[in-house]
RNA sequence: GCCCGGGUGGCGAAAUCGGCAGACGCAAGGGACUUAAAAUCCCUUUUCCGGCAACGGGAGUGUGGGUUCAAGUCCCACCUCGGGCACCA
């Protein structure tokens, strides 16, 4: 067969059509006898098109899925999309189309783009989270959580993004700004909102990081999660408000320093602060709250006021003033602290600023107490002037003093978390309606199960003006109370779209089920996800929420796994002109454009070749040219050698086959461990270079072994080209259904060992010797080597190091 | 400030267990083919010194120390870039 030019458009169009005719690229059944492998990419929030960064995410997962199938696994690799949140709503407003209609048009476009990329796609497992069935199960979960006290409504200070015109959960605030609008500062508003009790699982979420995720998830992500959950062990202690029976409860991790407390500081919102202060004081408190709202995170200004009240330290009966300050937060700990300026940085700063007394009660183990400290002593030491606790080490004092508080009823050891409950209410049109009804007589009434799903009305006006458009939809809002039958109002908040993405991967296992969210047996087969792949930006968003959801579902008896994913891989970002691709910066490269210019195969190969997948990479068109050239080289070699008759030269055959088997070994290892696909592809390039060198001297028999193996190795990375070449080779069936090639350890062996000769660690020569050569013989050969001799002549040989088959190092003086 | 990662040619990078630094590719330069161009194929390309050349020698993986026969790799200190957290009591 004559050489063919590599026409990527033609080839990709041809094989895309074939795949269309065969729905379900992966026929993955739960009762398969193969071992299972569930690989999944984190879904981006596509607002119309894939860009080159998305391709990278999918290319990694798709290559792995194809490899695993070829290795004999029963692979579940669904591809889809989940929550269409604000982008859909915004686009709908702009295009004057109903979001539902817009979303479905968008999904059709996404499908087309996925097909063009040749991503394996299980058409039977399509899940779109805007569908009524998905709403039903979201709502069903919501009600289950209410039953268990995990969903509740309360008036709270919540984050408000003016751009989105909705509230946000804490996890969705990044550097004081909205996660979707990097330059829009989030405001605080007091609103009545629905929350999910993530704090109820704080301890388990933290513990399982060590017990279940360590080793399988990147340390970076685990560190971020630990940080976010923020467990701290300490003590709660009641100070008595002077002249009353009222207690001010403070939380401290350093109860051992309490004899040095010279002040109690309350958050400005603290009820006791409010009660102590007159109108002027309240105005000041409000001022403090405002300072905090507007405060730049890097601004560390502390402002405080004396409330006029005094509190009694229960350990020593000291009377200390009660202050308020902006640096004490109402929603962490108890909203009140004891200030120990001598042993805490912040308290020291505050005390210095307002001339409060500073009293040392902890000394360094080998030092004395500082009478007038110039800086706080915050290290481990010995507690002094603390009555019966004097002389104890920091750790012992903490234990003894916590026990003392508990025994005398004025406190106890306590654990505080930084993580807060997940605010799930959104004032958006788009999202699952929260399934409750507000009745004047009966209060908050759950919608009965047989009335689910509560669906979005289709005739609302979408304004994007900060109030849920649902509130204006009279037919939707005005309902009868399910309990008493009186006129009542439907809840108009919708759920955070992160709710949808928290369990979509369960629904993928059983997407058409209308009796239950899923069949638990199917989940038991597929879960946990063997490999989850996505960007690090979801480390404390999606990846906390979905862990929480998994634990709740386990406690509801629906599943048995404790964690959603056994292994997580975070791929690097695709950078363009030194910045992450984003619409705002206008540096987005559309996948469609790239596929048209270079082809899907080239886009994938280049993205995997340019850098190891965990590292950020720059997209440059120049680099893509190289990947394209490589595919062309392979293609031409295969097409012109498919039926060429040749006797060949045994030496060339041996060289090429050795390279081939080394390559199979290398790529197999890369897939099984490091995923350094850049070196896998580099290896294929090396093989192709050898094939070009030896081409005229390769025998038919060698070619018959090399060509199909090369095509199979290329399959996971460049599926279209591989498919076409497979056909050229006269083979049938999709490439990814072939068994993965095996390497032969005999064939990959070099003929002789290349032994490096060093003198004092410097390379001076090399020897080619048979494998397993005798040490003494190697030493002799090295000493006699003409390149080595000049460097040892006239010097004393002190020592000779021999690493068999590798190296001889002669140490001379 | 605390916690994670990084720092290797003009560029992206490789070196998997302490054993030949720079594989593979990009860009650049040269050559072949061609009326010409594109495409393709081949060669050179860390740097400095010596040489017409083959070649020979020195230096070299952010900086300074250390361990070792041997360090990009291990240890200590520092510089620097990126990311995360940050009045969390």
Describe this structure in words.
The chain has 813 residues and is of the alpha+beta class. It is 37% helix and 18% strand. The protein is built from 25 helices and 32 strands. Strands 8, 9, 10, 11, 12, 13 and 16 form a 7-stranded mixed beta sheet that branches. Helix 17 crosses helix 18 and helix 20 packs antiparallel against helix 21. The protein is flat and about 105 Å long. It starts with 7 loop residues before the first helix and ends with a strand. The model has no long low-confidence stretch (mean pLDDT 87). It binds one RNA strand of 89 nucleotides through helix 7, strand 9, strand 13, helix 10 and strand 28.
Short recap of the structure:
The chain contains 25 helices and 32 strands.
Instruction: State the helix count.
Output: 25
User: How many β strands by DSSP?
Assistant: 32
N-to-C terminal Cα separation, in Å? 65 Å
- Fraction of residues in β-strands: 15-25%
Low-confidence stretches: none
Arithmetic mean pLDDT: 87
Portion in helices: 25-40%
The biggest beta sheet, please? 7 strands, mixed
Radius of gyration: 34 Å
Shape: flat
Question: Which structural class matches the secondary elements?
Answer: alpha+beta
